[in-house]
Design brief:
The protein has eleven helices and twelve strands. By secondary structure, it is of the alpha/beta class. The strands form three sheets. It has a five-stranded parallel sheet, sandwiched between helices. A five-stranded mixed sheet has the order 7-9-10-12-11. Strands 6-8 form a two-stranded antiparallel sheet. The two termini are about 30 Å apart.
């Protein structure tokens, strides 16, 4: 970083100006702030900054117009302009790039991301004369990456929305059939299995959404004291027919009854681990859920099966999306269930790992205590 570099921050919001100034001054930059578009244009002419941080939505003169006017000023053509905005959509991104922007950061601004973007753009400007062709290629690749990311987010939202509705409808119709009272015992088992599969599909859809959120740093637990015994009973009850069909017994050994966590994330993580264990458990065996207290208020939850286990070299890779363990067709990955578990546990500041069950696998998760949770 070049400590004498000057950064001009243009925004009509005092809190945003103060936050950006504090972050960048701590990194050794000289920061000039301008309250609104007109003042920003004047400040650019007066300060000749090395980089401009520019808000999109401002009264009188918006960020797009400010960018175009800066580009027309003497010396304004080669100064990096980084848009930062709460509007995370393709149209805003395209307008920012068309107006002459070099980069695009979304609010709320994460300090590390803001520092890295400013550092990158200042360094790119310094190297632009020597590496003009390389810069142009890098800029095009970055724009393509950002645009692709925004398209992925929009597609993800459409997929989740469009899939949730028919899955919820399936579950609703299954409930209507169960309440009708005219089904044979075999029919009731079949309809109950439809409900269980619909719930599993709903979990998979939510896993897809939450994995995407975690990649963007937006998976934030809502903490409360969770009755883990009740959650475990509910999850095992939901998967009981699935286990019975496979001739697998479900049981628990719980030494703690409460966990400080996000109940929905905890419930879905446990359901994914139990479903995974049942799928790999041999007929006539058992899947067990245990919970015990750890040091400093931690809670350690384990899900044990007696299946083929996970090879030692694959015990970290098994949490990667769509991973299949080598040399064991029966212990294959299935979508994003374990990936979601890892992201959900780590969002709490916890840890997840796999141990050898001798036989089988033991999936372990550890949640920090109330005072140590994120």
């Amino acid at each position: 970083m070049q400590e004498s570099a000057t950064i001009l921050v243009i925004d009509d919001n005092e809190a945003n100006l103060a936050l950006a100034r504090d972050i960048l001054e701590d990194e050794g930059y000289r920061v000039v702030v301008a309250r609104g578009g007109a003042e920003g244009i004047s400040s650019f002419e007066a300060s000749r900054p090395d980089c401009v941080l520019l808000d999109v939505r401002m009264p009188e003169v918006d960020g797009f117009a400010v960018c175009e006017r800066i580009r027309a000023l003497p010396g304004g053509a080669d100064v990096p302009i980084v848009f930062f905005t709460a509007q995370r959509d393709i149209d805003t991104f395209d307008r920012a790039m068309h107006a002459g922007g070099d980069d695009f950061v979304t609010k709320p601004v994460r300090p590390t991301e803001l520092i890295l973007r400013v550092q990158t753009n200042v360094r790119l400007r310094q190297a632009r004369d020597e590496l003009h062709e390389h810069y142009a290629l890098s800029k095009a690749e970055r724009e393509h990456h950002l645009r692709t990311q925004l398209q992925k987010e929009r597609l993800m939202a459409f997929i989740v929305h469009d899939l949730k509705n028919p899955v919820n409808s399936m579950d609703l119709h299954a409930q209507v059939l169960l309440r009708g009272g005219r089904l044979t015992e075999g029919d009731r088992d079949s309809v109950t299995q439809i409900r269980a599969e619909a719930k599993q599909l709903a979990r998979m859809i939510l896993n897809l959404l939450d994995v995407s959120k975690a990649e963007e740093g937006k998976l934030s637990p809502k903490y409360e004291e969770v009755d883990f015994a009740a959650v475990a009973r509910s999850v095992l009850g939901e998967l009981e027919l699935h286990a019975r069909v496979r001739n697998v017994k479900l049981d628990t050994a719980l030494e703690v009854s409460a966990v400080w966590a996000d109940e929905d994330l905890l419930r879905r993580a446990l359901a994914n681990l139990v479903e995974n264990a049942v799928r790999h458990a041999p007929a006539g065996s058992a899947v067990r859920v245990t919970a015990k207290a750890g040091p400093e208020g931690e809670t350690e939850i384990r899900v044990l099966d007696q299946g083929p286990g996970v090879p030692e070299g694959m015990r970290t890779k098994v949490f990667e999306a769509f991973m299949q363990t080598e040399g064991s067709a029966s212990r294959e990955g299935r979508g994003l269930g374990l990936t979601f578990c890892k992201l959900a546990v780590e969002a709490h500041g916890g840890r997840i790992w796999v141990e050898d069950g001798a036989p089988g696998a033991v999936f372990c998760i550890r949640f920090p205590g109330q005072g140590r949770a994120r």
